[in-house]
Structure formats: C-alpha cells, structure tokens
Design a protein that fits this description.
2 copies of one chain form a homodimer.
Chain A: H1 2-11, H2 20-34, H3 46-53, H4 57-69, E1 73-76, E2 80-83, H5 90-93, H6 111-119, H7 128-135, H8 159-171, H9 187-201, E3 210-213, H10 216-227, E4 233-238, H11 242-250, E5 254-261, E6 264-265, H12 269-272, E7 278-281, H13 295-308, E8 311-315, E9 340-345, E10 357-360, H14 366-377, H15 382-393, H16 396-423, E11 429-430, E12 437-441, H17 448-457, E13 463-464, E14 477-481, H18 487-505, H19 513-519
Parallel strand pairs in A: 4-5, 4-7, 7-8, 8-9
Antiparallel strand pairs in A: 1-2, 3-10, 5-6, 9-10, 11-12, 12-14, 13-14
Chain lengths: 520, 520
C-alpha cells in the first residue's frame, strides 16, 4: 500500500490546471488497467490515502465512488474496497477458426502484428467500397474563389432578409419546429415548392409528392436504397457528376456509363439490350457538358423506361439559370407512366451550405418515401425549412433568382470575352448558355488534371473534365465557374489560368496563341 | 390548319388566371405529344394564329420560340415552322432479350401490363432492401407528447439565447459559413467538442479526429460504408435501436443480434467463433434496456476487437443524463488499439431537429473520414455549426444539460411514483437511473405492440419493446419517455396509459391490480 501512495504522490501534479479529482481518478484507472494494482488488491481507506497524498478526503471518496460505478473496484460494506478482476478472459475472447485447441492468447500474438496494426495506413483498415470511394473522390478542399464551378455567389445572398425571417420564426416559439421531421418535411414548404415547380419547371405534382431532403446526394441515396438492390445496374451519363457516381457505387450499384452527344443521353445497341434498374440523367443541362436532351430523346427514354420498368432519376441541376432562352420543361412533366423521380436542390439558388433539397416522387410511392427518409436519416431542420418557406412565399426566391440570372449572365460573358482575348477560337467554350460554369475545351493531347493542379497552385480553382468520366475520356477540358467571381476579378484570374494553360497545353512554342499574337 | 385554330380556340380559357401564353404552350405541346399535330405539319404563321385566337401576336411568337427551344417544332428561316418528329423509335427503344426478330412495340404490349403498372401498389415497385426497410420501419408519425421516448423537452431549450447568437453570426457576413463544409466540419466546433468529450466522457481525441455529421444515423452510415462491404456481418445488441438496424441493413450488412444481460453485451460461444466486421454497442446505457456495460466486458470486447480486427462503433447515447451516479467513462477512452469509432449527437441535449452529431475516429483514419463525409453527403450547415460552437464555448451547453438533468430526474421520479401508485410492484421499471426513458416491464403474456397501439389511440405515445428485437423477444415492455412531459401532465397521462395496460395485459379481472385495490 505504501507503494501505491508513493507512486500516486509522485504522479499527482498539484500545480496542474487539471483538478486533483480527475488526476487521481485517471491515475488509479491506469494503475488498474495496466495491472500495477492487481485484481483482488485491497485499496487503502479513503482517510489514509487522503492523508498520504495531502488531498481532501472527499476527493478520494469521490474517486472511489466513480471507480466503483465504472466497475474498476468492488466496495463491500464493512470490509473495504477491492480491485475488480476485469481482465479479458482468453476463452471468452475466442478464436476466429473452429479449432479450439490452441486459442491464441493476447500475449502469444506475434510481435509484428501489433506493429503492423499501429503503423498501418488507413488503406488496410478500409472496406473495398470505402477504398474506392476515397480513391475516386471528387470533392475539393477549397470551396470558394475563381473559378470554382457549381457554386453561386453567396456574398449576393440576401442574408439580412433571411436572418430577419429566421429571428421572427425563432421568436414564435413553435416547439414543433424543433423536433424530428417524420412527414417528408415542413408542409408549407412542400406546398410552396410544388407551386414553384409546377410553374417554373412544368413538374406535375401535389405537395404530397414532395419529399424534403438535404440535397441531391440524399435524394439519390434514398431513391436507390428504396428502389434498387445491391448489384443492380444504374445508367449514368458519360461524363457525369462525381458525387452521384460515389453515392450510387457506395450503395452497391453497378454503373453503366452511357455516352452523350449534342442531344443528350445516347445509349448504344448494347446498352439497350440490358435495361438498368435506374437511369440518372440531367436533361435540362447535361452535367458537366451543358447540352439539352432533345425532345425526341426524352420521349424515347420515357418509353424505354415504361417498357422495361426503369426508374429515371431526373437531376434538374442548374435549370433556373438560363441566359439565352427560357428554362426548358422537365422530363417529369412529359412522363405519363410514373417512372420519373425528380430531384432538385436549393443550394445553387441560395447558398450551398443550406442543405435543403427535394424530390418529387410518383403519387403511389409518396408514403413509402416519407417513411424511408425518416427511417434512414431521421430528418429534422424544420425551423430552417420554415424560414425557406417564408422566403419563397414572400417572393424573395423568385426575385433573387432573377437578379442572379442577370449577374451570372454578365459574368459568363466577361469570362468568354477573356477566353477569346487570350486564345481567339483556339479553345472552344462548351455548354449551353446556362448554369454556373462552362467547360473550356483543351487540345486533345492536354493533361487536364495536371493543368487543374497547376492552376490550383497558382490560386485558381478549375476542375479537370477527366474527373467526370468513368471509362473513356473523349474530350479534354476544364470546368470553369463564373458565378461566384465578382466582375472585376474575372479578367485577372483568367490571366493566371491562361498562363498555366499556355505552359501546359501548348508545349510546342509555335503553338501558343499568346506567343503567336505577340509575334504577329 | 383551320382545325388546329378551332381546337385551340375552344380550349383556351380567357377568364382563367392562367396566362394565355402558358395555356397556349401547354395545349400545343399536348397536341404534338398526342399526335393531334402530326410530325411534319406546318404551323400557321404567328400572325394568322394570333388573329384566329384573338391573342397578341407576341404571345404566339413566344410560344413558338419555346416550342422550338424545347424541340417540339423546327423553325427554318424563310420556310416556316414545322412539327418535329420526336416519336420514340421502336428500334431505338430496344428489347431486353438478345432476340431482335420481334421487338415488342409499345402498342403490342398486352393491355394488362399497363393496367398492372397503373394499379400496382408501391410494393411491386420497390427493391428488396427498400421493402424490408419500409416493412420494419420503427419511425413514428408523432414526435411529441407523453410519453414519447428519446425526446428532450424542446420547450425548455434556451431558444432566445440561440437566436441571439445566430443573429449575430448572420450579421457578421462571414460568407465562408454559407458554402459546403469539406473539412469535417467547422473547426472551432470540433475544438469545443473535443474539449467537452475529453472532460465529460473521457474520450481521448484531438479536434482533428472529430468529424461533424448530421447525427447518429449519418455517423453509422459513413463508418459502415468506409469500413465494411456488402455481406459483412455487424453485431448489434439484442434488443437495439431500430434506426441503427435500418441503416446497417440498407448498407448491405448482415446483422448478428447478440444477447445482452445485466453487464451489457454478452456474446455466446457461437457468436465469438465468427468475428464480425463491425460491432455496434451502447456501453454507457444500453439502448433501450438501460444497463451499463461492465468494465470486464468492456475490456474483453476491446481485446476481441484487437485480435480479430473488429471495428467497434460506440453509440454514447444519453450518456450525459444520469440521475444517480456520475456519467461513466466511454469505451473509446479505454481503447489502446484504435478499434473504436465513437459516435454521439447533440439532438438529445438540445433539440432533435438540430441535426448535428459527431464522430471521433482513430487518428490515422481522420483524413479518410473527412473526405468520405464530404464525398458522400456534401455537407454544409457551417452557420449552424458556428452557432453551436459559440453556444458551447459560452458555457450554455453545460448549464443547459445541468438544468435538464435536474428536471428530467424529477420527471422520472414522478413517473415512477405514478407506476407504483397504479401497479405496486407488479410492473418492474427497467433501466439504469439514466436517459430520457425507462422500460415499463409487462407480464410475459402481454402483447406490447397491441398495447402501444391502443395507447396511441388513447393519446399516449409509448413504444413496444418488440420493435427493438431482431430475433427473439425475451422481455415484454413499453419504452416510456418522461423527459418531454411537463411535471403536471405526468400523472394524468399515466392514468390513461395504466387503463390501457389494465385492459390489455390483465385480461383476467381478478389479476388487475387496480381492481384488486378497489376491491380491497
């Protein structure tokens, strides 16, 4: 017992900010776990130990109580406090094989095994799907700045209006808005969204068919878990959004990349022979290339889905931002066979961190999806949904989108002007007059990931088209976002990007447009 | 052409609130899709049609523009506007078999098929895992009221404090808080949580090891997708939380339910022979029964996990609310082999709709999990995370938890008093002195789902223990939550519940305690 007191006294740091209670508790736990205090050892009385250590007796009493509550010691009335025997029983630990003759005890494990475990990289710890997810991850560490694609200008978001609506709702003390959201989301928001989608996107729906989610990722995840099994096939466009690919793969779906051309999704003979369970498409504005799916292709796809019971997930990405023509109608609005799950998000319209999206499901699936979203994700955020509902109903969404459409249209033109100034028509701008980015085409031999990496180091964010292809990259280019870049920063940031492109894509000096111009 | 104008004139409703532009657009789309306007038909000039219909020529021009943009018609300069041929080509639609001889055209499909499709319930549409998820869903349509288990009293939440912090942050115009959150969450929140968990839960971690999620569901989902593959086994406690079961199953894991006894998880010989990839446990407070995992069992489990490379997911549910002893230390704090993924949530402490949770992962997995959470869920909500960080750092979390601990402790006692008053000791109260609910034990022959359903109809929410078992229900009872019920409502609500229990569980009149007392 003297030894325990001496050891504890040596370890206790009375000048530490850590209270004596916590220090003593941790020291004694450590002593028991390491075997310094062997099972069955009787602890000194609280009075004795307190005296030896020069701490209050109450401190020791609290430590003993806690050790007892956590099972480190056993207190018996009258006869004192003993260290409990909590050593793992090697029989109970068991063996993975069915041969019980020589169960490997912890001590018998080869020394190298522990070293391996401690020194192993994360790679060895992960599942196959986890490793694939990380290896193929497309997410960027930076989320803001020229020319981050797919990001709206959050500095233009009417934050004061939002904050005012929010403060009013918090003041109203509606406690129902603080609980879980089991019914598919806040009802008035679903009503407001169904009105908006009917008018703006020709979507045919009632508020009942709307399920509020946290965004496109969750909407796709929910649809896939409810409608597809492990091993089922999903058509994705080639190229397509990396995030959708990751969600589908990690839910066990096999991806079948389907080519796109100027009219959108263009399945080949061999694709059609093997109907998928799910087809994920971006008909309004192909992501990332920007073409619009033609009406003929839409009708063909819907008919194919009807015949072969394919679920179409329509990602109506960026559909509000069109600078030339009006927004096109949704695929869902053409569907008479209830094969389309329509998904959208408010993140590109308002701000990405909002995390409110929605899906429109066929009427007969609505109850199923409401249950599914609550069961899988235990949704909440009704307060934020209520703020958004007011924001929409008071007309702020429409006027903000209108204002941003003008702003982004101007920025798009400024960026195109900068491209033309630097490269003439050597680098084509791909993509319809829509969305928050375009694809800056690069020569066939260009290494777009290397260029994107070099641009990143130079302070400009672009994404290589390579990241969006699953199988065969038949176009080279950079996703270049203009929406979040203030007008005056566009030209200087593009000058930096142009320098990087010239250094990498035009390695033969005579082929550099800038040098040609200088020479000419 | 006369026919088209006449048909359109008959359909147009000039008194409708719907603008003539939208009406005309929809009518012409419909006419083209149904074949009333055949492919190749030349449309009348805008001037002619406007005259025939008595609408402005600009209206017709806009309709033609939109029809052209959406691919319904083709406009050729000089020679007019023609209906495009967008009919699905039956060759392009293809067949599911490899026999191209007789491709079934849409018209050739048996009539019954369409009827089936239209009349089918959702059941036929779903995947196996989706059907299972919905069939076994535990989520309740009501989320508030006596005696909803697992729900804190949101009316006691310091909403004004929260709203004030929130308004201040929105005013600060920190645009970075409105973008995606790719780095595992808001850094100051991760620092505040790591401090909190170290002190309150003996968790060993740095801020780097903390990943912010939307709650327990997402934390489990992420761990399972990164660390386990389809077909891997997961140990779950028997009984356990239905939500965790649903998440694991829909990610493709096979569940192995492991019995629990008074010391927590108690694997049998046959369980140990087949080590799982994942073991999901609630050591602080078994959910839903409430026992604490003993130190001996903790050490055995950790040793087993080390030997067999099992990932332990520690759900530290309700650990802050203990009314008798102090909170027990976490399993994670005992783990020397980096096998524990610790998950927790703020929803039970503050309000469920908040949707902020966290996980603590081993250091060598931290970067992987940060990438994984961003890639799979595209997280945001940094503004809300910043509000929470301030709330914690200003000491509001600690004082709120302290206040709620007293309040819930009182409510728990009031409810136990009511149980004793009605039933004496005929119905045991199960569960440690902790958490937001206890289990009211029922006689062996009781049908707890039927009793819960009858109670629901009588206006009282309880959950049957049956919903928490996967294989064999060896205890009957009702999860009864007291945290969200004001003191004065506890006795009357329990009187209602007691009546339902008496009617159902004590069907032989002489066995009803209430009647016995009345008779006595």
């Amino acid at each position: 017992m003297v030894i325990l007191s001496e050891w504890l006294a040596a370890q206790l740091d009375k000048d530490s900010a850590e209270p004596a209670y916590r220090q003593l508790l941790q020291l004694m736990q450590q002593a028991i776990l390491t075997g310094r205090l062997a099972p069955g050892t009787k602890l000194p009385s609280s009075r004795t130990l307190a005296g030896d250590l020069g701490v209050a007796r109450n401190t020791v009493l609290h430590v003993y109580d806690q050790l007892s509550a956590e099972g480190y010691v056993i207190s018996t009335t009258g006869s004192g406090t003993y260290v409990a025997d909590t050593r793992p029983d090697s029989a109970a630990v068991g063996t993975p094989t069915s041969a019980p003759a020589n169960p490997p005890s912890p001590a018998a494990a080869p020394a190298g095994e522990d070293d391996d475990a401690a020194g192993a990289s994360a790679r060895g710890d992960m599942s196959m799907r986890g490793q694939r997810l990380i290896d193929e991850a497309g997410v960027s560490a930076r989320q803001w700045g020229a020319f981050m694609p797919g990001v709206p200008d959050v500095a233009e978001f009417p934050a004061r209006t939002w904050s005012r609506l929010q403060a009013r709702l918090w003041k109203s003390a509606n406690h129902g808005l603080l609980t879980y959201a089991p019914g598919g989301g806040y009802r008035p928001l679903r009503r407001a969204l169904s009105d908006y989608l009917r008018v703006a996107r020709s979507v045919r729906c009632t508020p009942d068919q709307i399920i509020i989610t946290t965004g496109i990722h969750q909407s796709i995840d929910l649809a896939v878990r409810l409608l597809a099994d492990h091993g089922d096939t999903a058509w994705v466009e080639e190229p397509c959004y990396w995030g959708a690919r990751s969600v589908l793969q990690s839910s066990g779906l096999k991806l079948a990349p389907i080519p796109v051309d100027d009219e959108g999704l263009n399945p080949r003979e061999q694709d059609l022979r093997d109907p998928p369970r799910i087809a994920l498409v971006t008909p309004s504005h192909q992501y990332p290339l920007g073409m619009v799916m033609s009406l003929a292709r839409r009708r063909t796809l819907l008919e194919y889905a009807r015949q072969h019971k394919v679920w179409i997930i329509e990602d109506d990405y960026d559909s509000e931002f069109r600078y030339g023509s009006r927004p096109l109608a949704s695929l869902q609005g053409l569907d008479d066979s209830d094969r389309v799950i329509y998904v959208g998000s408010l993140g590109k319209l308002l701000f990405p961190g909002l995390r409110i999206g929605y899906m429109v499901v066929p009427e007969r699936l609505a109850a199923t999806f409401r249950t599914g979203v609550a069961e899988l994700y235990r949704e909440g955020q009704l307060m934020q949904q209520a703020v958004l509902a007011e924001f929409i109903m008071d007309g702020y969404l429409t006027s903000h989108v209108r204002r941003m459409r003008t702003l982004y249209g101007e920025r798009r033109q400024l960026l195109i002007d900068a491209v033309t100034r630097h490269f003439g028509d050597a680098l084509p701008v791909m993509g319809d007059e829509a969305g928050l980015h375009f694809v800056l085409g690069l020569p066939e031999h260009a290494d777009d990931p290397a260029i994107a990496a070099a641009a990143y180091d130079a302070g400009v964010i672009v994404r290589p088209l390579a990241a969006y292809y699953s199988v065969r990259q038949d176009r080279k280019g950079l996703l270049t976002g203009y929406a979040c870049v203030p007008h005056e920063e566009i030209a200087p940031a593009f000058a930096t990007l142009a320098r990087v492109i010239e250094e990498h894509a035009f390695d033969r000096p005579e082929a550099t447009p800038e040098k040609q111009r200088r020479a000419g």
